[in-house]
Design goal:
Keywords: Aminopeptidase, Hydrolase, Protease, Signal. With 689 residues, the protein is an alpha+beta fold. The chain is 18% helix and 31% strand.
């Protein structure tokens, strides 16, 4: 497993909300007293507009450059559409999902099929489906109960074939199968007896395997005579940044991201069997990210460096001019999401913080960057706040790259220098092995529109800033990682952005844990907290990790603490919010999905029960048809209606009435509706109290 412990709470968790209507019995609160009341607050933007389904999202150009695909609503549910590139009149839905929607998709390299992954009610048992673009036929290529598809590989040299990892034999390990895309027939290529993942060459031959050792290091193996042989080791300190990108055209060496012998991650090339890599691209300040390889020659073309905002840099001399042309047409965040096989067209996601993101097409031959579609055209005429990059010093002199967004009433010039203070929400990203980035953020716009400043902090253990910064978070959950958040809060107070008693903490996944930590380890620091799917006990969390995280277990032990040792178990207990639950004195809202395989429902249940037994107020919202975050639009909208009322009662921000925002949601208020003004009464009117 190469990804972070928890994914940063996905956009779908926060941003796919639908319909709300005013309820006349509720009133809208005014901006907090710390704001100049003579300043007219911005127009109240409805949650429906900010969190509803986008008009279109996740745009892709087919590998042959002739077609486009995207996600768009069908009867309010995000489905897949395909049409001729740029011709939206020709676009038709190719799926008709009526549940949680289609979360992600990609094309077959022959442009004959569209693949998509989907689970059931958030259980993360992802199945791989394909749609025949010509006939419209849909087939599950991994139709096995309780199985999770992983590691999907294609090659232009082998059309009609995809390599997929499946764990139906042993839930801990993904065996590698060759799957016939047309028929779904699978053929076993490699039985996995303990490897984290495999690397295939350009002919779809399994060439490398990576295993996690007992000390958390990664061991890379090559195959010869049908046996695996150790090639090289990546120490634990380097293992999280380490990433094999792929083979060269001749299948004689690999390109990879590597921090060994250096601090920041570099793009390097290493011939098979050799030990000393050649550095291709590096930077002393940040990691190399988003490397683009030519789809056919597999030569590295360009990469991004992302300190405050991503900036593209050429590698291949032929791309010096195209990359300069691309950068000249960008002024915000950007990602290259897909390339045509001839590399003539790139699908580019462009993102300015105070406008709707736009999917664009970059012509690498002409240097022209043109719009494919705007994701949310309706928001461009609304009073949106601007995100500002700031660097906050930690108490031990680390640079915390952060993002500050201010309400228009406190910062009418939108220059990041408030004319008066406002309540602040410290919005903590998930992971923790992820990072906050510059760009449009619906939850940030929602909060600033309600009168709150928003501060997003890349605390130590966040990715992208070198291994020293990353590894500074090892065994520092509720320790130095939390100190970074406190330092950022104090910085905001010193800057006059907010007042010491007007700061809330909120987040999902690790951000939920950080919220619980804030209210237990520093009970006076925050006015209230919103925890979404956050673990309350690191001990029970470690005991209940999904079976397919087995290869990741030793990394967790090294980063958090080893529960099989007395010292490690003591550390995990000491850093668990539930151990200190009696210290909570501020309001807490908890949201949980019943099917969450990462942070199980028991994590929320146990801290709620502990608070109830001590007569500590807490509001607990549960969704029986959700997992690690809330994906259904109806559920998202209901939770953020509750969160808005909760924050309004805590910090005094503006509140849009709940209205119909619970309609068609599975929301269950397990405990504490009476602690949020108006919520108990609203539930009573629904007959669901």
């Amino acid at each position: 497993m190469k990804n972070s412990l928890f994914y940063a709470v996905t956009l779908s968790v926060f941003f796919t909300l639908i319909g709300c209507a005013p309820h006349s019995s509720q009133t809208t609160q005014q901006v907090p007293n710390s704001l100049n009341q003579q300043t007219t607050p911005a127009v109240l933007i409805s949650r429906e507009v900010l969190f509803g389904n986008p008009s279109r999202y996740q745009g892709r150009i087919s590998p042959d450059g002739k077609s486009m695909s995207f996600r768009a609503p069908v009867a309010g549910v995000m489905n897949l559409w395909v049409g001729q590139i740029g011709d939206f009149a020709s676009a038709k839905p190719i799926t008709q999902d009526t549940g949680r929607g289609i979360p992600t998709h990609f094309w077959s390299l022959d442009s004959q099929y569209v693949f998509f992954t989907q689970d059931k009610n958030g259980d993360e048992n992802w199945h791989l489906h394909r749609v025949d673009v010509g006939s419209g036929e849909i087939q599950d290529l991994t139709p096995y109960e309780g199985m999770q598809a992983d590691q999907m590989h294609q090659s232009e040299a082998h059309p009609g074939t995809i390599i997929v990892g499946m764990n139906d034999r042993d839930a801990k390990w993904h065996d590698m199968y060759q799957v016939n895309v047309a028929t779904g027939e699978r053929t076993l290529l490699e039985q996995n007896d303990g490897y984290a993942y495999y690397e295939l060459d350009n002919n779809l031959k399994i060439r490398l395997a990576v295993k996690t050792a007992d000390d958390g290091s990664s061991h890379v193996f090559t195959k010869a005579n049908n046996e695996w042989h150790l090639w090289f080791k990546v120490p634990f300190a380097d293992s999280q940044a380490f990433n094999i990108l792929g083979f060269d055209k001749q299948n004689q060496g690999i390109y990879m991201i590597d921090t060994r012998e250096r601090n920041t991650a570099a793009l390097v090339y290493l011939p098979i069997g050799e030990m000393t890599p050649t550095v291709i691209a590096s930077d002393d300040k940040v990691d190399v990210t988003n490397v683009l390889l030519h789809p056919r020659s597999h030569v590295p073309l360009a990469y991004a460096l992302n300190f405050i905002r991503p900036v593209w840099h050429p590698i291949d001399d032929a791309f010096i001019t195209p990359i300069k042309q691309l950068n000249n047409q960008l002024n915000g965040g950007s990602q290259v999401l897909a390339q045509t096989l001839d590399n003539s067209l790139w699908t580019v996601f462009t993102d300015q913080s105070n406008q709707s993101p736009i999917y664009k097409v970059f012509d690498t031959t002409s240097g022209e960057l043109t719009d494919l579609f705007i994701t949310r055209p309706e928001i461009n005429n609304l009073p949106l706040s601007t995100m500002h990059g700031v660097v906050i010093p930690s108490r031990d002199n680390l640079d915390l790259v952060s993002y500050l967004s201010l309400p228009l009433a406190s910062d009418p010039n939108q220059d990041g220098k408030p004319e008066q203070s406002s309540p602040l929400v410290l919005l903590v990203h998930g992971g923790p092995w992820a990072r906050d980035e510059f760009g449009f953020n619906s939850i940030t716009q929602w909060l600033t529109n309600r009168g709150y400043s928003v501060l997003q902090v890349n605390f130590r253990a966040s990715t992208g800033f070198g291994k020293t910064f990353f590894n500074a978070g090892n065994k520092e959950w509720a320790g130095a990682m939390h100190n970074d958040l406190i330092d950022a809060k104090e910085w905001a107070v010193e800057q006059g952005i907010t007042r010491d008693d007007q700061v809330a903490i909120m987040g999902g996944s690790y951000g939920g844990y950080a919220t619980l930590t804030g209210l237990t380890f520093t009970p006076e620091a925050f006015a209230c907290g919103v925890d979404i799917v956050g673990p309350s006990s690191l001990v029970t969390f470690m005991e209940s990790i999904p079976p397919y995280w087995e290869s990741f277990r030793q990394i967790l032990y090294e980063a958090l603490g080893n529960p099989t040792t007395d010292e490690g178990l003591a550390l995990l207990k000491a850093r668990s919010p539930i151990t200190h639950v009696d210290k909570i004195i501020k309001p807490l809202l908890i949201g949980q999905g019943a099917n969450d395989p990462r942070v199980k429902q028991a994590e929320s249940d146990q801290i709620v029960e502990a608070m109830k037994s001590r007569d500590i107020p807490v509001t607990y919202v549960l969704y029986p048809d959700e997992g690690h975050g809330f994906n259904k639009p109806e559920n998202n909208l209901s939770f953020f209606a509750v969160a808005e009322a909760f924050l309004g009662s805590c910090l005094g921000g503006r509140i849009e009435p709940i209205g119909d925002d619970f309609r068609d949601s599975s929301i269950e208020i397990i405990h504490g509706a009476e602690f949020i003004p108006g919520l108990d009464e609203h539930m009573a009117t629904l007959g669901n109290n």
